[in-house]
Amino acid sequence: MKKFMKSEELARDDRFTRTAVPLDFLMAEEVTVEQVEETMMTLLGNEDVRKMMEEQGGGGGAPNVFRRVRPEEDDAPVFIKTQMHGIFMGEMQALEAAGRSAWDFTDDDQLPWQFQLDMARQCWDETRHVEIYSALLDHVDCRIGEFAENLFLFEFGCSDDPAERVVGVNRCLEGLALDVFNDTIRFGQAADDDAIWRSVDYVSADEVTHVRFGQVWSKALTEGDPERRKKVVSFQRKVDRAFSLGGLRGSYDGANTAAFLPLAVEFRKLAGFSDEDIAEVAGAGPKVTGRK
Ligand SMILES: [Fe+2]
Ligand SMILES: [Fe+2]
Hints:
Layout: E1 18-19, H1 23-27, E2 30-32, H2 33-44, H3 47-56, H4 76-104, H5 113-139, E3 149-150, H6 152-157, H7 162-190, H8 194-220, H9 226-242, H10 265-270, H11 275-282, E4 287-289
Parallel strand pairs: 1-3, 2-4
Helix pairs in contact: 4-5, 4-7, 5-8, 7-8, 7-9
Bound molecules: fe (ii) ion (2 copies).
One fe (ii) ion (FE2) binds next to helix 7 and helix 8.
Protein backbone atom coordinates (compact mmCIF):
# COMPACT_ATOMS: atom_id res chain seq x y z
CA MET A 1 0.00 0.00 0.00
CA LYS A 2 1.25 3.44 -0.91
CA LYS A 3 2.94 5.59 1.75
CA PHE A 4 2.83 9.40 2.06
CA MET A 5 -0.26 10.06 0.00
CA LYS A 6 -0.94 13.55 -1.33
CA SER A 7 -4.19 15.29 -0.45
CA GLU A 8 -5.46 15.18 -4.04
CA GLU A 9 -5.15 11.38 -3.99
CA LEU A 10 -7.78 10.95 -1.26
CA ALA A 11 -10.68 8.92 -2.67
CA ARG A 12 -14.25 10.24 -2.71
CA ASP A 13 -17.36 9.07 -4.53
CA ASP A 14 -19.38 11.24 -6.90
CA ARG A 15 -21.42 12.93 -4.16
CA PHE A 16 -18.41 15.07 -3.26
CA THR A 17 -16.93 18.16 -4.87
CA ARG A 18 -13.73 20.01 -3.93
CA THR A 19 -12.49 23.56 -3.82
CA ALA A 20 -8.76 24.24 -4.24
CA VAL A 21 -6.64 24.57 -1.08
CA PRO A 22 -5.94 28.33 -0.67
CA LEU A 23 -2.21 27.74 -0.05
CA ASP A 24 -1.02 31.33 -0.54
CA PHE A 25 -3.68 32.73 1.76
CA LEU A 26 -3.09 30.17 4.52
CA MET A 27 0.68 30.73 4.45
CA ALA A 28 0.61 34.52 4.19
CA GLU A 29 2.10 36.63 6.98
CA GLU A 30 -0.27 39.45 6.14
CA VAL A 31 -3.81 39.31 4.73
CA THR A 32 -6.60 41.82 4.13
CA VAL A 33 -10.12 41.55 5.59
CA GLU A 34 -11.47 41.18 2.04
CA GLN A 35 -9.18 38.22 1.42
CA VAL A 36 -10.32 36.60 4.68
CA GLU A 37 -13.99 37.08 3.76
CA GLU A 38 -13.51 35.74 0.27
CA THR A 39 -11.58 32.69 1.45
CA MET A 40 -14.04 31.86 4.20
CA MET A 41 -16.89 31.99 1.71
CA THR A 42 -15.03 29.57 -0.56
CA LEU A 43 -14.24 27.26 2.36
CA LEU A 44 -17.62 27.33 4.10
CA GLY A 45 -20.21 28.59 1.69
CA ASN A 46 -22.41 27.22 -1.04
CA GLU A 47 -24.93 29.01 -3.28
CA ASP A 48 -27.55 29.25 -0.48
CA VAL A 49 -25.07 30.86 1.89
CA ARG A 50 -23.87 33.27 -0.76
CA LYS A 51 -27.43 34.32 -1.56
CA MET A 52 -28.24 34.81 2.11
CA MET A 53 -25.16 36.98 2.61
CA GLU A 54 -26.00 39.10 -0.41
CA GLU A 55 -29.56 39.62 0.74
CA GLN A 56 -28.57 40.54 4.27
CA GLY A 57 -25.27 42.28 3.83
CA GLY A 58 -26.61 45.33 2.03
CA GLY A 59 -23.46 45.68 0.00
CA GLY A 60 -22.83 41.92 -0.09
CA GLY A 61 -19.66 40.53 1.44
CA ALA A 62 -19.50 38.03 4.25
CA PRO A 63 -19.55 39.82 7.61
CA ASN A 64 -22.03 37.28 8.98
CA VAL A 65 -19.56 34.46 8.55
CA PHE A 66 -17.50 35.97 11.36
CA ARG A 67 -20.08 36.14 14.07
CA ARG A 68 -21.77 33.45 16.08
CA VAL A 69 -25.32 32.69 15.04
CA ARG A 70 -27.98 32.10 17.69
CA PRO A 71 -30.59 29.34 17.19
CA GLU A 72 -33.54 31.78 17.06
CA GLU A 73 -32.07 33.74 14.13
CA ASP A 74 -33.20 33.23 10.52
CA ASP A 75 -29.67 32.19 9.51
CA ALA A 76 -29.55 29.36 12.07
CA PRO A 77 -30.56 26.44 9.79
CA VAL A 78 -27.98 27.39 7.16
CA PHE A 79 -25.35 28.06 9.83
CA ILE A 80 -25.74 24.66 11.49
CA LYS A 81 -25.76 22.85 8.12
CA THR A 82 -22.52 24.59 7.13
CA GLN A 83 -20.95 23.79 10.49
CA MET A 84 -22.04 20.12 10.53
CA HIS A 85 -20.92 19.52 6.97
CA GLY A 86 -17.54 21.14 7.63
CA ILE A 87 -17.07 18.95 10.70
CA PHE A 88 -18.15 15.82 8.81
CA MET A 89 -15.50 16.49 6.16
CA GLY A 90 -12.98 17.26 8.92
CA GLU A 91 -13.67 13.88 10.52
CA MET A 92 -13.12 12.12 7.19
CA GLN A 93 -9.78 13.88 6.79
CA ALA A 94 -8.82 13.18 10.42
CA LEU A 95 -9.56 9.49 9.81
CA GLU A 96 -7.44 9.54 6.67
CA ALA A 97 -4.62 11.45 8.38
CA ALA A 98 -4.54 9.10 11.39
CA GLY A 99 -4.64 6.13 9.00
CA ARG A 100 -1.64 7.56 7.17
CA SER A 101 0.16 8.12 10.49
CA ALA A 102 -0.38 4.47 11.46
CA TRP A 103 0.95 3.22 8.12
CA ASP A 104 3.46 5.77 6.72
CA PHE A 105 6.16 5.24 9.36
CA THR A 106 6.18 1.44 9.75
CA ASP A 107 9.74 1.30 8.29
CA ASP A 108 11.03 3.69 10.97
CA ASP A 109 12.97 1.52 13.48
CA GLN A 110 13.27 4.42 15.91
CA LEU A 111 9.51 4.69 16.35
CA PRO A 112 8.05 2.71 19.29
CA TRP A 113 5.22 0.31 18.45
CA GLN A 114 3.01 2.30 20.83
CA PHE A 115 3.02 5.13 18.26
CA GLN A 116 1.25 2.94 15.68
CA LEU A 117 -1.12 1.63 18.35
CA ASP A 118 -2.13 5.16 19.35
CA MET A 119 -2.70 6.15 15.73
CA ALA A 120 -4.76 2.98 15.14
CA ARG A 121 -6.84 3.82 18.20
CA GLN A 122 -7.43 7.26 16.69
CA CYS A 123 -8.58 5.71 13.38
CA TRP A 124 -11.13 3.64 15.26
CA ASP A 125 -12.43 6.77 17.01
CA GLU A 126 -12.56 8.86 13.83
CA THR A 127 -14.50 6.12 12.02
CA ARG A 128 -17.13 6.34 14.75
CA HIS A 129 -17.13 10.14 14.48
CA VAL A 130 -17.79 10.00 10.72
CA GLU A 131 -20.82 7.79 11.47
CA ILE A 132 -22.04 10.14 14.21
CA TYR A 133 -21.74 13.26 12.04
CA SER A 134 -23.37 11.48 9.13
CA ALA A 135 -26.39 10.93 11.44
CA LEU A 136 -26.20 14.55 12.62
CA LEU A 137 -26.26 15.73 8.99
CA ASP A 138 -29.57 13.85 8.63
CA HIS A 139 -30.71 15.47 11.88
CA VAL A 140 -30.16 19.01 10.52
CA ASP A 141 -31.58 18.07 7.11
CA CYS A 142 -28.30 18.40 5.23
CA ARG A 143 -27.09 15.91 2.65
CA ILE A 144 -23.53 14.72 2.12
CA GLY A 145 -22.01 16.84 -0.64
CA GLU A 146 -24.31 19.83 -0.11
CA PHE A 147 -21.17 21.90 0.48
CA ALA A 148 -17.83 21.53 -1.28
CA GLU A 149 -14.93 19.95 0.57
CA ASN A 150 -11.57 21.62 1.09
CA LEU A 151 -8.58 19.42 1.87
CA PHE A 152 -6.51 22.04 3.69
CA LEU A 153 -6.58 20.12 6.99
CA PHE A 154 -4.97 17.03 5.46
CA GLU A 155 -2.70 19.13 3.24
CA PHE A 156 -1.20 21.14 6.10
CA GLY A 157 -1.33 18.44 8.77
CA CYS A 158 0.47 15.64 6.92
CA SER A 159 4.21 16.23 7.10
CA ASP A 160 6.55 13.35 6.21
CA ASP A 161 8.29 13.59 9.61
CA PRO A 162 6.38 11.67 12.35
CA ALA A 163 7.06 14.32 15.00
CA GLU A 164 5.72 17.02 12.66
CA ARG A 165 2.84 14.77 11.64
CA VAL A 166 1.52 14.45 15.19
CA VAL A 167 1.96 18.19 15.68
CA GLY A 168 0.08 18.99 12.45
CA VAL A 169 -2.67 16.41 12.72
CA ASN A 170 -3.02 15.88 16.46
CA ARG A 171 -2.09 19.17 18.03
CA CYS A 172 -3.22 21.61 15.34
CA LEU A 173 -6.02 19.85 13.39
CA GLU A 174 -7.55 18.13 16.41
CA GLY A 175 -7.10 21.31 18.45
CA LEU A 176 -9.11 23.22 15.87
CA ALA A 177 -11.74 20.45 16.10
CA LEU A 178 -12.02 21.11 19.84
CA ASP A 179 -12.71 24.79 19.14
CA VAL A 180 -15.37 24.01 16.54
CA PHE A 181 -16.98 21.37 18.77
CA ASN A 182 -17.11 23.70 21.75
CA ASP A 183 -18.89 26.21 19.55
CA THR A 184 -21.33 23.54 18.30
CA ILE A 185 -22.08 22.31 21.84
CA ARG A 186 -22.98 25.87 22.85
CA PHE A 187 -25.23 26.23 19.82
CA GLY A 188 -26.93 22.87 20.58
CA GLN A 189 -27.50 23.84 24.20
CA ALA A 190 -28.90 27.24 23.25
CA ALA A 191 -31.20 25.51 20.73
CA ASP A 192 -32.21 22.98 23.39
CA ASP A 193 -31.24 20.27 20.91
CA ASP A 194 -30.04 17.27 22.91
CA ALA A 195 -29.07 15.23 19.85
CA ILE A 196 -26.60 17.92 18.77
CA TRP A 197 -24.94 18.89 22.01
CA ARG A 198 -24.78 15.44 23.63
CA SER A 199 -23.37 13.80 20.47
CA VAL A 200 -20.75 16.50 19.99
CA ASP A 201 -19.84 16.45 23.68
CA TYR A 202 -19.32 12.67 23.42
CA VAL A 203 -17.06 13.06 20.37
CA SER A 204 -15.09 15.85 22.08
CA ALA A 205 -13.95 13.42 24.79
CA ASP A 206 -12.17 11.38 22.09
CA GLU A 207 -10.67 14.49 20.49
CA VAL A 208 -9.09 15.50 23.80
CA THR A 209 -7.26 12.14 23.74
CA HIS A 210 -6.13 12.72 20.14
CA VAL A 211 -4.76 16.17 20.92
CA ARG A 212 -2.98 14.66 23.91
CA PHE A 213 -1.30 12.11 21.58
CA GLY A 214 0.09 15.09 19.69
CA GLN A 215 1.41 16.76 22.82
CA VAL A 216 3.00 13.56 24.15
CA TRP A 217 4.52 12.19 20.92
CA SER A 218 5.90 15.47 19.62
CA LYS A 219 7.83 15.85 22.88
CA ALA A 220 8.89 12.18 23.07
CA LEU A 221 10.17 12.07 19.48
CA THR A 222 12.29 15.22 19.85
CA GLU A 223 13.65 14.44 23.34
CA GLY A 224 17.36 15.30 23.55
CA ASP A 225 17.40 16.66 19.99
CA PRO A 226 17.09 20.45 20.19
CA GLU A 227 17.61 20.90 16.44
CA ARG A 228 14.71 18.62 15.58
CA ARG A 229 12.51 20.18 18.24
CA LYS A 230 13.21 23.62 16.77
CA LYS A 231 12.18 22.38 13.33
CA VAL A 232 9.01 20.82 14.75
CA VAL A 233 8.06 24.02 16.59
CA SER A 234 8.54 26.05 13.45
CA PHE A 235 6.29 23.60 11.55
CA GLN A 236 3.74 23.91 14.35
CA ARG A 237 3.70 27.72 13.99
CA LYS A 238 3.13 27.42 10.26
CA VAL A 239 0.16 25.05 10.72
CA ASP A 240 -1.28 27.08 13.62
CA ARG A 241 -1.19 30.13 11.37
CA ALA A 242 -2.89 28.29 8.52
CA PHE A 243 -5.59 26.97 10.86
CA SER A 244 -6.19 30.42 12.34
CA LEU A 245 -8.16 30.96 9.10
CA GLY A 246 -6.91 34.46 8.60
CA GLY A 247 -6.43 35.26 12.26
CA LEU A 248 -9.96 36.39 13.05
CA ARG A 249 -10.32 34.11 16.05
CA GLY A 250 -10.73 35.12 19.66
CA SER A 251 -10.65 33.21 22.93
CA TYR A 252 -13.46 32.61 25.35
CA ASP A 253 -13.38 35.01 28.21
CA GLY A 254 -17.08 35.09 29.02
CA ALA A 255 -17.51 38.55 27.56
CA ASN A 256 -16.42 37.44 24.13
CA THR A 257 -19.29 35.15 23.17
CA ALA A 258 -19.85 36.82 19.80
CA ALA A 259 -16.38 36.17 18.40
CA PHE A 260 -15.93 33.88 15.44
CA LEU A 261 -14.73 30.42 16.45
CA PRO A 262 -13.10 31.18 19.79
CA LEU A 263 -10.44 28.87 21.26
CA ALA A 264 -11.85 26.16 23.52
CA VAL A 265 -9.56 26.92 26.45
CA GLU A 266 -11.03 24.36 28.83
CA PHE A 267 -10.90 21.47 26.33
CA ARG A 268 -7.40 22.42 25.25
CA LYS A 269 -6.21 22.42 28.85
CA LEU A 270 -7.69 18.94 29.34
CA ALA A 271 -5.57 17.89 26.36
CA GLY A 272 -2.38 19.19 27.96
CA PHE A 273 -2.14 22.75 26.63
CA SER A 274 -0.47 25.21 28.99
CA ASP A 275 -1.50 28.88 29.18
CA GLU A 276 1.59 29.59 27.10
CA ASP A 277 0.52 27.06 24.41
CA ILE A 278 -2.95 28.62 24.26
CA ALA A 279 -1.53 32.13 23.96
CA GLU A 280 0.66 30.90 21.13
CA VAL A 281 -2.31 29.48 19.19
CA ALA A 282 -4.34 32.63 19.84
CA GLY A 283 -1.49 34.78 18.50
CA ALA A 284 -0.62 32.53 15.56
CA GLY A 285 -2.69 34.32 12.92
CA PRO A 286 -1.31 36.56 10.20
CA LYS A 287 -1.42 40.33 10.44
CA VAL A 288 -4.86 41.43 9.22
CA THR A 289 -5.05 44.77 7.44
CA GLY A 290 -8.08 46.83 6.44
CA ARG A 291 -10.18 45.98 9.51
CA LYS A 292 -13.47 47.87 9.48
FE1 LIG B 1 -12.87 13.09 15.28
FE1 LIG C 1 -9.85 13.25 16.39
